Amino acid sequence: MAASDLTQIGAHSEAPQQKDLDKCVHCGLCLNSCPTYRELGMEMDSPRGRIYQMVQVAEGKAAITDTYIEHMDLCLACRGCESVCPSGVQYGRLIEAARAHIDQNIRRPWHVSAFRNFIFGTLLPSRMLLSLAGAGLFLYQSSGLQKLVRSSGLLKFFGRLHEIEMLAPSAEAPFFFSQIGKVFPAEGEKRYKVAMLAGCIANVSFARLNEATVRVLQKNGCEVHIPQAQSCCGALHVHAGRKEEARKLAKNNIDATLDGGFDAILTNAAGCGSTLKEYDELLEHDAAYRDRSIAFKAKMKDINEFLASIDIRPPAKPLNMTVTYQDSCHLCHGQKIRLQPRKVIASIPGVTLKEMALSDLCCGSAGIYNVVHNEMAMNLLKNKMQSVNATGAECVVTANPGCMLQLQAGVKIHGKEQPVLHVVELLDRAYRG
């Protein structure tokens, strides 16, 4: 997109706020925690450098140019910089605001706008369209066509399509959509009444993970409700700068769950959870939902966070397995949850946890980043797999579906095809013997 195609239409309320920009003292302690800076060594592709550019735009000293957009887009929004920042800079809030400001202030080519409108405005919020897309993917994979395409080598003649296709999720029939609206009783004494947010794409590609989550919760005395009116959480919309659509989805999910008398509202996707817990920021200027979003946030829990806070029923049989744990960025940096997944893993008899080096450095998934910035994502994945392989673990465990997809590609390309599991799936295997 040429600079001449960019049309600024003035300042917008979505722009990074001066009070947030002013927190950065440009000390540079964030540099080594930034995956893109570690790879490229460029100041403008570090958190400090990106904030400097945001300030220039905010003060009217620089325009929204192709270069500015490129540097903002190349950020993974992993928020690793937040964990090491001594000034408490909310970088995730800043990068999301910068992208929203860009989205509100430029004209994209019509075909790009049409594609983005379809994905974010039509596909992700629609169970019917996601089911149809999932059915098509299932046929492509189960018919043997995917295997034929991969073995033919044809994709290598289309740029990085070969690498991108390897990241395609599996379609896990039957899809979890059929379980939405149902209530699953607790096993034994009912201890908690919880709501589970099933996600959007996860209903197609991680249906078995969602089922495992329900079983684990039932095993631990939870009556599990899958609210009928729930929708996509809006995380991908926020990351893409489409905040108004995210706000509509946020309001819908709040209304679908908040008044149900639940002890907790749960998600098994760390990336979704980070956005769900920030609905209060997303709706801070909405008088009708400001207080409701705060109440929703108080009940919103990651599945690991919830399980670690209750007395987990110990599995009867040991798994006898050595695993290594990959910290999901939006769990450890966004939600500040590090010990809880490890506590859940430690509760499983026979499982030995071998920590990997740089476990909290991004694997390169970052929502759809590994598709739109595939080369950078694959470089980060290669580095991550070096850490994984060095542990000698038989299994890789993480806490986010997006990370699982990336790591599944990693073990095929750089590893020994070790199984990649969610923490909840590991616990479910122990319960099921």
Could you explain how this protein is built, in words?
The protein has 433 residues and is α/β, with parallel strands linked by helices. It folds into 4 domains: 3-105, Orthogonal Bundle (Fumarate Reductase Iron-sulfur Protein, Chain B, domain 2), CATH 1.10.1060.10; 110-166, no CATH class; 177-308, Glutathione S-transferase Yfyf (Class Pi), Chain A, domain 2, CATH 1.20.1050; 316-431, Rossmann fold (3-Layer(aba) Sandwich), CATH 3.40.50. The chain is 50% helix and 8% strand. The strands form 2 sheets. The chain has a 5-stranded mixed sheet with strand order 1-3-2-4-5. It has a 4-stranded parallel sheet with strand order 7-6-8-9, sandwiched between helices. β8 (395-398), α23 (401-413) and β9 form a beta-alpha-beta unit. α12 (207-219) crosses α24 (423-431), α18 packs across α20 (339-346) and α22 packs across α23. The N and C termini lie far apart (55 Å). The model is unreliable at 1-12 (pLDDT under 50).
Q: Could you outline the blueprint of secondary structure elements for this entry?
A:
Elements: H1 18-21, H2 35-40, H3 47-58, H4 66-73, H5 80-84, H6 91-105, H7 110-123, H8 127-142, H9 145-152, H10 161-166, E1 183-184, E2 192-196, H11 202-205, H12 207-219, E3 222-225, H13 235-239, H14 243-257, E4 264-267, H15 270-276, H16 279-282, H17 290-299, E5 300-302, H18 303-309, E6 321-325, H19 329-332, H20 339-346, E7 351-353, H21 369-372, H22 374-391, E8 395-398, H23 401-413, E9 420-422, H24 423-431
Parallel strand pairs: 2-3, 2-4, 4-5, 6-7, 6-8, 8-9
Antiparallel strand pairs: 1-3
